Amino acid sequence: GGATPQLPAQLLRQKHVLAALRTLGQVLLCFADPQLLLTLANQPPDTGGSGPPALPLMASCGAAGNVTLRPSVALAISSVWAALLCAAASVAELRPLVAAVSRQLQRIPEWALPRKLPGLEETQAHKAFALQVLTELAEEQQRHRPQLASPCMPLSATAEAPEALAPSMPRVPSALTEAVFSGSEWQRPVRGSEVELFLHIAYWLACLIDWLLGREPRVIENAPVPQTEWPRMFANWKLSASSVLALTIAVLW
After folding, report:
1. Where does residue 115 rank: exposed (0-12), middle (13-18), buried (19+ CB within 10 A)?
2. CB 99 within 8 A of CB 120
3. What is the phi/psi pair of residue 67, to 5°?
4. Dist CA 69 CA 40 (whole Å)
5. pLDDT digits (tens, 9 = 90+) for 11-20
6. Can you give the chain as a three-state secondary structure string?
7. pLDDT over threshold 50, residue 22
8. What percent of the chain clears pLDDT 90, i.e. is strictly above it?
9. How far is it, in rounded angstroms, from Cα 37 to Cα 248?
């Protein structure tokens, strides 16, 4: 027989599950930015490249041709949000991230999603929302089940199927390749070689420096962040270790 399925409480005690939830939360926090959604809505159907044309994130709906996220993309967002709400109810360390994502989701334009997602504070709506998402996921799975390859289908035909089903669209260059980040360094997600503990220390150090210099917090998208950004570089454990080592050698030499 197969392995016994684990309970949610058991899953949430595993470090790799928490790491995956944090990553999904950071991705959702970035993707739900209203300005990014508006930019994506104004992009051409395909973003260029050497592979087959990619399915667009946006789709037209209704007689007026209003642009909205494709149903599968909207369902993926709802699924991630339902998982984060469930985890935040049991894991305290996820609540600050989930609260930030909740504030961002409330600012999503109405045209982007078919329904409004419940906020973190709307606890009465969480269970009904999760059940609705599970129902939609099951329906989506049933819709795609007949399209799965049959056991007797040659592997070559299965491998070629995605390219054969890919829509024929003109390939044009995208302005996304020229996009640059214009926010604060404190709004960036945790990057490679950065340690979250060091990031928190650097953040509070930046707040202290602003307070000593009499600077007001910088408000970006209704979120106050320190004006001093250079302490963020010490969230990188390699740079921090090298700096401490260099200072130790300079003092003891």
Report:
1. exposed
2. yes
3. -90, 135
4. 10
5. 777 888 888 9
6. CCCCCCCHHHHCCCHHHHHHHHHHHHHHHHHCCHHHHHHHHCCCCCCCCCCCCCCCCEEEECCCCEEEECHHHHHHHHHHHHHHHHHHCCCHHHHHHHHHHHHHHCCCCCCCCCCCCCCCCCHHHHHHHHHHHHHHHHHHHHHHHHHCCCCCCCHHHHHHHHHHHCCCCCCCCCHHHHCCCCCCHHHCCCCCCECHHHHHHHHHHHHHHHHHHCCCCEEECCEEECCCCHHHHHHEHHHHHHHHHHHHHHHHC
7. yes
8. 25
9. 48
Asked whether the predicted pLDDT for residue 160 surpasses 50, the reply is: no
What type of residue sits at position 26? Q
Token representation of residue 205:
């150090």
Q: Is the pLDDT of residue 167 over 50?
A: no
Residue range 59-64: mean pLDDT, rounded: 56
Under 8 Å between Cβ of 184 and 220: yes
What percent of the chain has pLDDT above 70? 73
pLDDT attached to residue 153:
47
CA 247, distance to chain mean position in Å, is: 38
Give me 242's structure tokens.
């090298």
Position of tokens 């959604």? 37
